[in-house]
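Moderator note: this is an archived Q&A kept for reference. The question asked for a predicted structure of one protein chain; the sequence and the answer are reproduced below.
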Amino acid sequence: MPDTQTLTQQAERQCHQRGVRFTPIRRRVLEMISASPGGLKAYDLLDKLAAEHAAARPPTVYRALDFLIEQGLVHRIESLNAYVACPCPEHRHGFQLLICRDCGRVEELHLDEVSAQLSQRSAQLGFRVDRQTIELLGTCDACQLALAES
């Protein structure tokens, strides 16, 4: 996963190229999310943001999150109701999330063929997919190693 500064610079370039505003609040929300390896919940973001900006309210955070998701800079972890930074926001793609139930670390996979197969089969059944979320819950290598050593 790229560091926070790299992700923020990529986001700034991408927003500039697309002609959309990367406001200071949007930037700060992305920085907070990218600094958390397991993602952050909206109200955790609100608490952190409110500590810096007294005027921060839930709509402020949700608008920033909606923007960041729309731009492909952040993904929503459906099962945890949390948000994680996308390590490669420069292109739109299908993705899958590996979530460690022990430490909370989230890793992103890019198995485009899986996304394509699901979209193709859905279309064959007459189903229009609006959003595809694939989450795999398990134990990461570091936690497996720690468990084996204990």
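Archived answer notes: DSSP finds six helices and six strands in the chain.
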